[in-house]
Amino acid sequence: MEKDRNTDRQHPDVVAGRNAVLEALRSGRTIDKIDILSGETKGSIGKIVAMARDAGIPVRETTAQKLDKICPGVNHQGVAAYVAAHDYAELDDIFAKAEALGEAPFLLICDELEDPHNLGAIIRSAEACGAHGIVIPKRRSVGLTSTVYKTAAGACEYVPVARVSNLASAIDEMKKRGVWIYGADMDGTQWCTQDYTGGVGLVIGAEGFGISRLIREKCDFIVSLPMRGKISSLNASVAAGILMYEVARQRLQISAK
């Protein structure tokens, strides 16, 4: 069995074992997703699956080898739950924060980011730039793991992260609240020619794939950064940081007048 290179004990984001996962569900603990052994759907695992679905928690089937890898040395009994290192916020919380500060909403929308270091770096930059919150989807996305929390260097305590079931519907809700949606992609207009002084929802796409088709169709504007070298794209968190600081720069200019 391949061993986790970073640790020889249970992953800090995982609760393993049937009773432990059941108690985590009963307690209302924030759970990002649950892995179960493929084919195991009866007894207590069946109960776990039902409770998870009622709570809107994604459940996926996996192999014994993968469960062994994330729970080394632990009797996982065919089930493991990935718990969040920090509680999630609601979309309303982000808008309430902007309103309390008397500012136009400024949100980061992460479309299926999978690298916890990218999400953590984005949260850290968002806090520095004065963004009011981050929005991520429940499925096909990294959640608030301990790696994200550590990479964010404390910013998770100040930047609310909302986790939504349907990202496209959440964007529609943002638009109703006066937010313009800006997608970061390769074939858009120059990033610095746009006006970001109103409500801003900045979409950052997945590593390697960019913004998904449906979310791209929801964007009001597509903005691009110039690429002068041989490599065709930037790391997601680097691109996000550059764009966030342009939003911050324009808003600072307005407030200084």
UniProtKB/TrEMBL annotation:
NCBIfam families cross-referenced by the UniProt entry: rRNA_methyl_3
Origin organism lineage: Bacteria, Bacillati, Bacillota, Clostridia, Eubacteriales
Protein name: 23S rRNA (Guanosine(2251)-2'-O)-methyltransferase RlmB
RNA 2-O ribose methyltransferase substrate binding domain boundaries: 14-89
Source organism (scientific name): Zongyangia hominis
PANTHER family: 23S RRNA (GUANOSINE-2'-O-)-METHYLTRANSFERASE RLMB
GO molecular function: RNA binding; RNA methyltransferase activity
Source species, domain of life: Bacteria
Gene Ontology biological-process annotations: methylation; RNA processing
Pfam families in the cross-refs: SpoU_methylase, SpoU_sub_bind
GO annotations of cellular component type: cytosol
InterPro entries: Alpha/beta_knot_MTases, Ribosomal_eL30-like_sf, rRNA_MeTrfase_TrmH, SpoU_MeTrfase, SpoU_subst-bd, tRNA_m1G_MTases_N
Record keywords, A-Z: Methyltransferase, Transferase
